[in-house]
Design goal:
- The complex is a heterodimer of chains A (about 300) and B (about 625).
- Chain A has ten helices and ten strands.
- Chain A is of the alpha/beta class.
- Chain A has an eight-stranded mixed β-sheet, with helices on both faces. A two-stranded antiparallel sheet of chain A has the order 5-6.
- Chain A starts with about 35 loop residues before the first helix and ends in a 6-residue tail after the last helix.
- Chain B is globular and about 90 Å long.
- Chain B folds into four domains: about 200 residues, Pyruvate-ferredoxin oxidoreductase, PFOR, domain III (Pyruvate-ferredoxin Oxidoreductase, domain 3, 3-Layer(aba) Sandwich); about 180 residues, Rossmann fold, CATH 3.40.50; about 80 residues, no CATH class; about 130 residues, Rossmann fold, CATH 3.40.50.920.
- Chain B contains 21 helices and 21 strands.
- In chain B, the strands form four sheets. Chain B has a seven-stranded mixed β-sheet, sandwiched between helices. Chain B has a six-stranded mixed β-sheet with strand order 2-3-1-4-5-6.
- In chain B, strand 17, helix 18 and strand 18 form a beta-alpha-beta unit.
- Helices cover about 35% and strands about 20% of the residues of chain B.
- Chain B is an alpha/beta fold and about 625 residues long.
- The chains are: A alpha/beta (about 300), B alpha/beta (about 625).
- At the A-B interface, strand 2, helix 2, helix 4, helix 9 and helix 10 of A face strand 7, helix 8, strand 9, helix 10 and helix 12 of B.
- Strand 2 of chain A pairs parallel with strand 15 of chain B, so a sheet runs across the interface.
Chain lengths: ~300, ~625
């Protein structure tokens, strides 16, 4: 029997199984969009029948970083912007785990921007949810990388002179193989997208629009949205890189002018995941590395026998 | 020129094959029963620029590069740039010869490639040769190489000339070249070798200098190993199967060796976007149940400060390597220093704690790396191996039996699923992974995917199951538990006799020398020289720095009148650590510091001891005495 018997369990599950028994009172403000992410993640995990113990949810710092405090699974609340490198390595060490990383727009697109680009480039098989509320929340309302140009805050009293980050376009350029945008105000779409993202064999990036009722009442999350995949007005081939790119560009340009478009923007089912690439070139074992440490029959190579001849 | 030892320096341009040639030379001599020790000097550029490697050869065990050298093979820099008149970096073409004359002992031998080097370009060359009694061989190595193969084979020609002059049996070198070269390269190299060898025996026989290589034999099989090799092998034998890193000199060597070897044993190596990611990956892999490591040199390790603290707070085992080079900032990338001691001890916020080892040589590097992993995994905290460019790159012969040890895949205090079923959980069903009322203060952990083991690891202060908490009572309990692990580790490292570090010289000596890490062997040779000259000195080489061996060091200092603390940095960091940890003895300590980018030679420590202790023994110790180093 596997050492990690929680992995691969196929049981029907209820979303309440992911609610901690000793439910900590979330520190999110009433009306916060983060509740929507939590709800969607629980729904997705239940639909997929995932055991709480086969999931590892890695978060960064900020309001989004509390996600795994309120979601029952293995969790690693890391440091600002660093959820991805920790999540990546856990997946490499044990590919059987379902690994979800999460962070905020400051965490994910600002301080962790480098890790975002490289994790997407490598196409690690994991899901990355970025809580995008266009503001720094937990540090009390500073301008974030996704705040619109001209956004005023205590640290940008004259309004931001910077164009906001284009997370979807960046993700596509970096190499993510599943890219979607969803919103806390549409929990059913959000849940479906998380299900697809977890099932997708590669790096899945979800830009998750979450409203901040305390610090950013003007944000786009409050305006009506349209699901591009359900609307005849926005027909495009989401497996086609250039059509997806055009769609993203349009979305990220007109975003603040009324309508918010959500849905799946890009899906590449052909590209092998990083694990598959590493295994193909012989740089990663076929069996989960972590299993080996529990296998009493495994014969560990000694340097004396394996490598010392070259020094003689 | 004495015949009991040869210190052979091969000099040329970076990229001219100096390192590989010297490595083969050293290995051939080791195979013939001698003890060897190499020292590298190279510039921070890809091709061209003055580089040399010394190979010290002796019938007896050697602990350092020695003082100066006595045989120069100057090959010429094939990448030299013909600098403009007055260029600040000087005439690079002649550097392989001109730059090396200061350290050449009287009566020594100079072989230079007259095909590439012209002594007319070196001021006062003939006068200096006469003054020091050097024996000069101007041989057109380049032409010999061209005639039978390619110009690059002038290395082989130079080695052949060395053999002919120093009386080294050519077969040892030839058989090694046979082992390492493909046949179509080997054949022309042999022709070059024979031709160059004959030039010396036929044309220079008459005025042969009194130079020969000693003979020796080993009781047991030896291997030629660098500190970087030893660290990598210690990690592999301790079951490390995951490394993440970013290249930085000189840490890159360990990273490279691991990356090349890991696939062979089913391990994973990841070169990632930066050092923050590198350390974070090691933490992530360790969290998921694999023995993992990362590392860097000073600048990259600065970036690891943040994940280092996370490993402490989440009690995730991890081993980090810090290969020091001259700083601050990017400093001198290819030059050695011991200036990152405080950086490694104190970096990261809060009451942080980690175990730090500073191996002195390859053998210690292997053993201490294994110990670093064992302690990291048993006690769930970061261990750091602190070494430097010097011992990372030095090759020396080590008995193969040192590596004849069983592998250790034990993850330390990890529970099985059966044990987890009986382990304490909180009311939410979470495993109490951070229990504070546990024996030894190490709370056992679980691995993601294990049934019954789910918990939250977090860099915030947390309750036993990982819930974030600012409860004052829990806070104090958790801090106390984490900190007290260091006391347990101190007791374990101290052992029964409390002598965990390197003691050398007469136990009842009047004076002491203390050093840490890579300077230990050099200091030991200095102690030998001083005692032979009638002084009364002993050495304590500290290579386990945190938790600090308080009782052992206090006992050493108490037993002598004065102590000279030898280290390669300008701010006396090791002496400062000693005074901080001991809280007394400041007046008994004085410092000998070197920070010009090159390690101490034994003679410099001898000279420093005489200046500081013998000639002026009553000066208060808190005044740092610096003996400037001459030349290199």
């Amino acid at each position: 029997m596997s050492t990690f018997s929680a992995i691969g369990e196929d049981v029907e599950r209820d979303r309440n199984e992911y609610t901690p028994g000793l439910e900590p009172q979330p520190t999110w403000c009433p009306g916060c969009g983060d509740f929507g992410v939590l709800k969607a993640l629980k729904g997705a995990a239940a639909e997929l029948g995932l055991s709480p113990e086969e999931m590892l949810v890695c978060t960064g710092i900020g309001c989004s970083g509390k996600l795994n405090s309120y979601f029952e699974s293995y969790g690693f609340h890391t440091i600002h912007g660093r959820s991805l490198p920790i999540a990546r390595a856990a997946k490499l060490a044990n590919p059987g785990l379902t690994v979800v990383a999460a962070g905020g727009d400051g965490d994910g697109y600002g301080i962790g921007g480098n890790h975002f680009a490289h994790s997407a480039r490598e196409n690690h098989d994991m899901t990355y949810i970025v809580f995008n509320n266009e503001i720094f929340g937990l540090t009390k309302g500073q301008t974030s990388p996704t705040s619109p140009k001209g956004h005023k805050s205590k640290t940008q009293p004259h309004g931001s002179a910077k164009d906001p980050i284009r997370p979807l376009s960046q993700s596509l350029t970096a190499g993510a193989s599943y890219i979607a945008r969803t919103a806390a105000v549409n929990p059913n779409q959000a849940k479906d997208i998380i299900v697809e993202a977890i099932e997708h064999d590669g790096f899945s990036h979800i830009d998750f629009l979450t409203q901040c009722p305390t610090w950013n009442k003007d944000a786009k999350q409050y305006v009506p949205y349209i699901d591009i995949n359900d609307s005849d007005d926005y027909e495009f081939d989401r497996t086609d890189r250039s059509e997806a790119s055009e769609m993203m560009y349009e979305t990220e340009t007109v975003l603040h002018e009324g309508t918010v478009l959500t849905g799946r923007y890009y899906v590449d089912e052909e590209r092998p995941s990083y694990t598959q690439e590493k295994q193909a070139i012989g740089e990663m074992p076929d069996e989960p590395l972590a299993e080996r440490y529990f296998d009493d029959d495994y014969e560990w190579e000694r340097v004396y026998d394996t490598f010392l001849d070259r020094h003689k | 020129m004495t015949t009991d030892e040869l210190i052979w320096r091969i000099a040329g341009g970076s990229g001219d094959g100096i390192a590989s040639t010297s490595q083969n030379f050293a290995k051939a001599l080791m195979r013939s029963g001698l003890h060897v020790f190499t020292h590298r000097h190279y510039p921070s550029r890809i091709r061209g620029g003055h580089t040399y490697t010394e190979v010290r050869v002796s019938a007896d065990p050697i602990r350092s590069r020695g003082d100066g050298y006595n045989f120069l093979l100057a090959l010429g820099d094939s990448f030299a740039r013909n600098p403009k008149e007055g260029a600040y970096y000087g005439n690079e073409e002649v550097k392989p010869l001109a730059e090396n004359l200061d350290d050449l002992r009287d009566g020594g031998v100079i072989v230079y490639d007259s095909g590439l080097l012209d002594t007319d370009d070196i001021p006062d060359f003939d006068e200096r040769v006469e003054e020091h009694g050097w024996h000069v061989y101007d041989i057109d190595l380049r032409s010999i190489a061209r005639e039978h193969g390619r110009e690059v084979m002038r290395n082989t020609a130079g080695v052949a000339v060395t053999c002919a002059i120093a009386g080294i049996e050519p077969q040892a070198i030839k058989s090694l070249m046979d082992d390492t070269m493909p046949e179509k390269v080997f054949e022309p190299n042999m022709s070059v070798f024979d031709d160059a060898y004959d030039v010396v025996t036929e044309e220079y026989d008459a005025d042969a200098p009194d130079v020969s290589v000693p003979t020796g034999s080993h009781d047991e099989e030896q291997v030629l190993i660098s500190g970087s090799d030893a660290i990598a092998y210690g990690a592999l034998d301790e079951g490390c199967r995951f490394i993440a890193g970013y290249p930085m000199t000189p840490w890159t060597e360990v990273f490279t060796i691991m990356s090349q070897n890991l696939p062979e044993v089913g391990g994973i190596s990841e070169q990632v976007e930066d050092e923050i990611a590198a350390a974070a990956l090691a933490i992530g892999a360790s969290h998921a149940g694999v023995k993992a490591m990362s590392g860097s040199s000073g600048g990259g390790f600065a970036l690891m400060s943040e994940p280092l603290g996370l490993a402490e707070m989440t009690e995730t085992p991890v081993v980090l390597i810090e290969a020091m080079r001259a700083g601050p900032s990017t400093g001198m990338p290819t030059k050695t220093e011991q200036g990152d001691l405080e950086h490694v001890l104190y970096t990261s916020q809060g009451d942080s704690h980690r175990v730090v080892f500073a191996p002195a040589d390859a053998e210690e590097a292997y053993r201490q790396t294994r110990r670093a992993f064992r302690i990291a995994y048993e006690y769930q905290l970061p261990s750091i191996i602190l070494y430097d460019q010097k011992n990372g790159g030095e090759l020396q012969n080590v008995p193969a039996s040192v590596f004849d040890e069983e592998p250790n895949p034990d993850l330390g205090s990890v529970l099985t699923e059966a044990e987890l079923a009986d382990a304490p959980h909180d009311a939410s069903g979470k495993f109490n992974r951070f229990q504070y009322d546990v024996e030894g203060d190490v709370s056992p952990r679980s691995i993601p995917g294990q049934e019954g083991g789910r918990y939250l690891a977090t860099g915030n202060e947390h309750m036993p199951a990982g819930h974030i908490s600012e409860d004052p009572e829990n806070r104090v309990n958790q801090v106390n538990r984490r900190m007290s692990k260091m006391d347990t580790i101190r007791k374990e490292l101290d052992g029964d006799d409390g002598e965990r570090n390197f003691h050398y010289g007469p136990a009842d000596a009047d004076y002491g020398i203390m050093t840490f890490g890579s300077q230990q062997g050099t200091a030991a040779e200095a102690v030998d020289t001083l005692n032979e000259a009638g002084e009364s000195v002993k050495l304590l080489g500290v290579s386990e720095l945190a938790p600090y061996p308080v009782d052992e060091v206090a006992g050493f200092i108490e037993s002598v009148e004065e102590v000279l603390v030898v280290e390669m940095n300008a701010s006396a960091q090791f002496r400062g650590l000693t005074q901080k940890e001991l809280g007394r003895f400041g007046e008994k300590l004085s410092s000998l510091l070197k920070y010009n980018g090159n390690p101490f030679e034994p003679g410099e420590i001898v000279e420093g001891f005489r200046t500081s202790i013998v000639e002026d023994g009553t000066l208060p110790g808190h005044e740092t005495k610096f003996v400037p180093a001459a030349g290199d």
